[in-house]
């Protein structure tokens, strides 16, 4: 905290806390009345003037009050993470949403994104695990009708994928069970990508079931995609905040959110279960100059790693967002079999993010 003594920091912290709640520029009289610091309004005004010279406060030209700068949020979040003053009040809220294990990975991350956006009132993004490809544990064919069957593929990460394919009407449940055993014996331990290469060779010895194997191969080819599914929750939440009352800014933000590959690239984080916070210009994305991005990671049993993130205005409620992301990361890690993984704050925390709350909330 160069050139920042304890009194200045307490005043800056009070200004940030007040602006998070109100979205209204903060004056010295507000701080004097609302926060018991034992300081006169004149003293606070002088300190605020110093903070502005140091680059921690900005003064909107239409207001006598001050608002925190990106530099101020950086200091605020650095201190928050350094002292580990991250509350855990929302752990129960996160846990209750994950009591039942969902069968499809897409279901899990879609649900996680919705929970994150509901709890934070910001825009949430959840990326599926990336890294080592999951390996097939077993394959089951279950008759649905006389001419269709459900294909169920279970991987070593506990991830289940299924689809319905067409089958010959001559194949009864016993025949489908036999084919299931053959496929499991031949493909267990292989990735979905490897299985799509092996299946044509199996078809040479199972010509009477060639159509069925083609259906399974097409399904595996579709299912093997890495980050093909990016879950977004509360995409329009940001439009509720005064920062995005400008139509052009709102349109640019929504356009970016809808470009899922670009969004995944922006949010994706690498490393252990640590928090990454990027504030305003630190995002490196022009459309997000007034945003902050907070992310954490989660892990699966076989070492794959996914990312969860929250996007909001720079006046984001950082402590609460970090608490919720930590709980969510832990729940997802347990859900995908990495029971021992606990979210933690890394010393190498990246550039941090926002503070926000809806005006008047």
Notable characteristics:
361 residues, 42% helix, three-stranded antiparallel beta sheet
SSE blueprint and pairings:
Layout: H1 6-22, H2 28-34, H3 41-53, E1 57-58, E2 67-68, H4 70-82, H5 91-96, H6 105-120, E3 123-130, E4 136-145, E5 148-155, E6 160-166, H7 173-187, H8 192-205, H9 210-223, E7 231-233, H10 247-258, H11 260-267, E8 276-279, E9 291-299, E10 305-313, H12 318-335
Antiparallel strand pairs: 1-2, 3-7, 3-10, 4-5, 5-6, 8-9, 9-10
Helix pairs in contact: 1-3, 2-3, 6-12, 8-9
Describe this structure in words.
- With 361 residues, this protein is an alpha+beta fold.
- The chain is 42% helix and 17% strand.
- The protein has 12 helices and 10 strands.
- It has helices spanning 6-22, 28-34, 41-53, 70-82, 91-96, 105-120, 173-187, 192-205, 210-223, 247-258, 260-267, 318-335; strands spanning 57-58, 67-68, 123-130, 136-145, 148-155, 160-166, 231-233, 276-279, 291-299, 305-313.
- The strands form 3 sheets. It has a 5-stranded antiparallel sheet, with helices on both faces. A 3-stranded antiparallel sheet has the order 4-5-6.
- The protein is elongated, with a radius of gyration of 26 Å.
- The two termini are 31 Å apart.
């Amino acid at each position: 905290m160069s050139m920042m003594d304890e009194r200045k920091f307490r005043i800056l912290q009070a200004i940030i806390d007040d602006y998070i709640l109100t979205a209204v520029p903060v004056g010295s009289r507000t701080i004097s009345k609302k926060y018991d610091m034992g300081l006169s309004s004149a003293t606070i005004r002088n300190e605020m003037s110093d903070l502005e010279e140091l680059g921690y406060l900005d003064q909107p030209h239409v207001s006598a009050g001050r608002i925190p700068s990106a530099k101020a949020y950086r200091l605020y979040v650095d201190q928050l993470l350094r002292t580990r003053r991250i509350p855990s009040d929302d752990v129960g809220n996160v846990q209750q949403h994950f009591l039942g294990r969902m069968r499809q990975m897409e279901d899990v991350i879609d649900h996680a994104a919705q929970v994150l956006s509901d709890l934070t009132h910001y825009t949430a993004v959840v990326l599926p695990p990336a890294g080592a490809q999951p390996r097939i544990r077993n394959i089951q064919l279950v008759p649905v009708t006389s001419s269709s069957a459900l294909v169920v593929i279970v991987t070593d990460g506990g991830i289940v994928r299924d689809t319905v394919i067409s089958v010959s009407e001559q194949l009864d449940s016993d025949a489908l069970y036999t084919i299931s055993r053959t496929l499991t014996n031949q493909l267990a331990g292989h990735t979905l990508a490897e299985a799509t290469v092996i299946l044509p060779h199996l078809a040479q010895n199972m010509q009477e079931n060639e159509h069925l194997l083609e259906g399974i191969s097409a399904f595996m080819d579709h299912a093997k995609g890495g980050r093909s599914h990016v879950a977004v929750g509360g995409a329009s939440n940001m439009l509720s905040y005064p920062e995005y009352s400008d139509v052009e800014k709102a349109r640019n933000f929504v356009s970016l959110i809808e470009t899922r590959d670009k969004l995944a690239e922006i949010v994706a984080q690498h490393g252990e279960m640590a928090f990454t916070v990027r504030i305003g210009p630190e995002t490196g994305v022009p459309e997000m100059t007034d945003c902050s991005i907070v992310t954490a990671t989660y892990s699966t049993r076989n070492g794959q790693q996914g990312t969860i993130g929250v996007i909001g205005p720079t006046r984001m409620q950082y402590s609460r967002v970090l608490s919720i992301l930590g709980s969510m990361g832990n729940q997802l890690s347990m859900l995908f079999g990495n029971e021992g993984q606990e979210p933690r704050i890394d010393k190498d925390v990246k550039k941090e993010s926002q503070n926000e709350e809806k005006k008047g909330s």
